[in-house]
Specification:
With 536 residues, the protein is of the alpha+beta class. The chain folds into three domains: 267 residues, 3-Layer(aba) Sandwich (Beta-lactamase); 103 residues, no CATH class; 139 residues, no CATH class. It is 41% helix and 14% strand. It has 15 helices and 16 strands. The longest helix is centred in the last third of the chain and has 33 residues. Pfam families: Beta-lactamase. This is Beta-lactamase. Keywords: Membrane, Transmembrane, Transmembrane helix.
């Protein structure tokens, strides 16, 4: 915004105007800085170059912006989807128009005017700040985590003291203080990006959080070990900041900071609500319209990480009384949830005051969100072909069939050898049988590899970029080979059992294996478990 004031940047110009490489348009529309600052540029989530323990993983912002460019999955300005890449891209643009490195720019233009002497984006920490740095912990009883290197540094590498964050908040509460002209600060704080009404939405850089009837502008920040949040209440000249050095048990840090914001507002800015519940019969009908499986807009859609959509479904369920529940989103707040519809397709939690709202088109709910995340994430109804409600049980059944088929091969061989029995198949029928069993083992090997990768990724996101590239490339080659190979050879085996008039049990087993192969092949290609690109 300082560069906007200086006339060097225009929030509504194509960002390619400021870059030395091109970001192609999506649906004929270019990205603007306004899209970037409101997280509506349309980028999918990218973690390949995100967090590392190795300082050598750092690279200049200009290089990062080129090599880490994610796919555009939404037309700009249409869909909130938080993007660390977009934040780093904005910083890259500031570097280019200011002629200063990002670290130098922030130190000179933000930290120095505010006397923020214990703050830096530099990584690793400069020597004078190392002794002040808190240790981060992933779990009770574990050693402290190494210092986390955020590769897109402007998106999360800030190390700051609580006192310095107080100085930063005061500057914004003073209409920009020494950082911005009051009119620029007002534009930054008061802008409301289009979204699902009446939910919270993005300002410019900050986002809304309505606590009770009080509007706050806020922002959170998370690495693996550290979890921070700030709220500004401009109406009351008040700011609140919290930072925790552990995710806590079962992700308790999320619930703690959510509860802090709500309880703080309840105590110091009490308010009342005069909600009028919707007629129970209409509310029950609206709840049934909302029910189903949904996919978050912040996520991967064009690479293998889209598999996480299958492993972490977002369900809206309805009880016998027509009341909604959102089990997968309960960790966004502390305490029980009690959703009551207060106007058409808007529900309020009577405990926290948060709202859920849905967008309806042609009599069908197409997307919804919840106040806590609505500025930067909405949830779209999951397509039938990717719906975990049927895919997960189908996948479990398919894997069970493949395991049985794979194990039956050596077991039958041992039994035949033990009793000197001949095998019923011969020639091409025998070859088809053996190949289908060999590909069954390849499928299980691929599944084991993906499971191992997900386990490592869940415990250390830094492992996904670089250290595990070899495994990812291997799995993306092996998986389509194994699933398609199983489909072809199991179908060949099935045709042989029919042609040769084999007993019904053998034909049934062959049919089940073909069905299992179909499910696995569908998952392979629907969730992009193939390819060679290194941006994911």
């Amino acid at each position: 915004m300082q560069q906007v004031e200086a006339g060097k940047l225009d929030l509504d110009q194509d960002v390619n105007r400021y870059l030395d490489f091109e970001i192609p348009p999506r649906d004929g529309k270019p990205i603007t800085l306004r899209h970037i600052m409101t997280h509506t540029a349309g980028f999918e989530e990218s973690v390949r170059y995100l967090i590392s323990r190795d300082p050598d993983a750092l690279m200049p912002l200009a290089e990062y912006a080129r090599i880490a460019l994610p796919e555009r999955v939404f037309a700009p300005g249409t869909t909130p989807a938080y993007s660390n890449y977009a934040t780093a891209l904005a910083a890259c643009i500031v570097e280019r128009v200011s002629g200063m490195s990002f670290d130098d720019y922030v130190a000179d233009k933000i930290f120095a005017p505010l006397d923020m002497q214990s703050s830096t984006f530099r990584q690793p920490l400069p020597g004078r700040l190392r002794d002040q740095m808190s240790k981060g912990y992933m779990a009770i009883g574990q050693d402290p985590s190494p210092f986390e290197i955020v590769i897109p540094a402007p998106a999360g590498s800030l190390s700051a003291s609580g006192a310095d964050m107080g100085r930063f908040m005061i500057a914004h509460l003073q209409n920009g203080g020494p950082l911005l002209e009051p009119s620029t600060a007002a534009q930054m704080h008061n802008y409301r990006a289009p979204n699902i009404a009446p939910l919270n939405t993005m300002a410019l850089g900050f986002y809304e959080q309505r606590l009770g009837n009080t509007r706050a502008i806020a922002h959170g920040g998370d690495t693996e070990a550290f979890h921070s949040y700030l709220w500004l209440f401009p109406e009351y000249d008040t700011g609140l900041y919290i930072s925790m050095n552990s995710p806590g048990k079962a992700g308790a840090a999320q619930a703690i900071r959510a509860a802090l914001g709500h309880r703080f507002a309840e105590r110091y800015f009490p308010s009342t609500r005069d909600d009028q519940p919707v007629d129970p019969q209409i509310a029950a009908e609206h709840a049934r319209m909302l029910a189903g499986s949904y996919t978050m807009s912040r996520g991967a859609f064009t690479n293998f990480l889209s598999l996480l959509q299958l492993l972490g479904p977002n369900e809206v369920v309805v009880d016998a009384d027509g009341r909604i529940a959102l089990p997968s989103l309960d960790n966004l707040s502390a305490g029980a949830r009690d959703w009551v519809e207060i106007e058409p397709f808007v529900w309020r939690d009577t405990v926290t005051g948060e709202r859920v709202a849905a967008q309806v088109e042609d009599g069908r709910v197409i997307r919804f969100s919840i106040d806590t995340i609505s500025p930067f994430t909405v949830l779209y109804r999951t397509p039938t072909g990717a719906d975990p409600a049927w895919l997960i049980p189908s996948l479990i059944a398919a894997l069970a069939i493949v395991v049985l088929a794979a194990l039956a091969w050596p077991v039958r061989a041992i039994v035949r050898r033990r009793f000197a029995a001949d095998f019923a198949l011969s020639g091409r029928s025998l070859l088809a049988y053996r190949l289908s069993r060999a590909f069954s083992w390849l499928v299980l090997l691929a599944v084991a590899g993906w499971a191992a990768m997900i386990i490592v990724f869940s415990s250390d996101i830094g492992a996904i970029g670089g250290p595990l590239d070899w495994l990812i490339q291997l799995l993306r080659t092996l998986t389509p080979l194994a699933s398609v190979g199983l489909l072809v050879t199991s179908a060949w085996h099935l045709l042989g059992t029919i042609r040769d008039g084999r007993r019904w049990t053998m034909r049934l087993g062959a049919v089940l294996l073909v069905l299992a192969a179909l499910i696995l092949t569908w998952i392979t290609f629907r969730f992009h478990l193939y390819g060679y690109g290194l941006v994911y």
